[in-house]
Amino acid sequence: MSAILPPAERLWWNTPVGRQEIVWVGIALLWCLILFAMMPYWHVYGKQNLSNEAYKIYPAAYETKVKAMVDQYKVREEGPQLIPVVHPPAGSDVYILARLWQWWPILELEKNQTYRLHLSSLDWQHGFSLQPLNINLQVIPGYEMVVTMTPDTSGEYTIVCNEYCGIMHHTMLGKIFVKE
Ligand code: CUA
User: Fold this and answer.
1) How confident is the model at residue 4, as a pLDDT?
2) Domain-located, residue 123
3) What per-residue confidence (pLDDT) applies to 51?
4) CA 81 to mean position of chain CA atoms
């Protein structure tokens, strides 16, 4: 029997379903259920999607908050673009803003201290990817995302924009330092 031609038997729904077909439907159903269970499992145990908070905020208001932190805690500037390096008090709320094509400012954090990291964009959708850790977040204008994190290894971490945001997307790199 073909799917193109009408069924030979007019009352086709009375024909028993073939064994192979039942087996395949069973396999597909089982696989669906496994994948469905993986969604909550991976959220809890995969450590891939962080549970986080999100608030609505106007981009200009977010920029004001970030600037206030930079003005207060700037310790030096880095690179050809003179990006400020900020060392906020241990355990405080820290801010990074995304814009075409920059993560601003550079944070200097202390090891084993818990921070609330705020993220938002001033212009476009960007992707916050922290390397070599596997932290990934969408950074969207109008929304302030907050991640609570405790860096437990000192070193230099790179923020890579992993959401295509235009011609200079590939240059949109940022930094976080974690000090002993
Ligand atoms: Cu920002 Cu890609």
Assistant:
1) 81
2) yes
3) 64
4) 25
